[in-house]
Write a structure and sequence with these properties.
This protein is of the alpha/beta class. The protein has 11 helices and 15 strands. The radius of gyration is 18 Å and the shape is globular.
Length: about 300
Amino acid sequence: MESVRTDYHVHPDYSIDAFPVKIRDYCHRALELGLGEICFTTHLELDPVRREIDNFVFFKGKKHSVHDLTWLDGYFSEIARAREEFEAAGLKVKAGIEVGYDRGLEKDIEKIVEEYPFDFVMGAIHCLNHIAISSMKESPRYFSSRSLAEIRNDYFTTLKEAVKTGLFDCIAHVDLYRRYGIKHCGPGILTIHRGAIEPVFKEMARKGMGLEVNTSSRRRGLKEFHPSPEIISLAAEAGIKIFTVGSDAHSLDDLGDHIQDALALLEDFNLCNHVFTRRRAVPCLHKAIGQKADR
């Protein structure tokens, strides 16, 4: 028996920081890699302070405001065509989105995720004080001017607010601050979650919200995934049952990266990978090698 391999964090050419790879091309690559299911998660950034920086997608070959929702009509149509094309080959194709949360954006986020038939809505903390901590270029401006205590308060206060909204099915790369924070703050940043993340996880468990195991950290020189095994253990202790695995692919080479290791990590904790259909989580069943899994 082996785990069904899924990739639930994939950025097609709609995301402004992704390579210009079409949904269909990712699906072909997913089949080559033996993935059973792929979920596209285009970035949605709505912070008005950053309107001229990242409130865009690529649509019809040019930058397009995320606030003009015609791009979503095209996005869903393209995913629907891929879903139909690849169904016979055994690949399930899902429509997702990765929402960059910041306080005050709740109504804008709710309007979009309620109006469109997403399978999977993932929330993420990409920015603190309107600075992208996920960016190699921007993050030094944040980390170099703040203490660990300030970073801890900023991040986990924002995370708590994101979870409290109940708008998200899953939280992405929950310790993303490690990506570039380790360079500026040293190893102390690896433990700032202690005492702060546990109540957030309890609220996530109460709401039935999932947690992503994101493998992109390996591509950036970190040894552990987002989140670390210690944090996964705390999530399990808090009662979180729903987990997803994602490569955070921004190019074809990223797709499926270290997914098998992420699945193995979940198995080490007796946790189950999940997939989503129209915002409802379903555990991924194991399959016999060479056979399709029934879901």
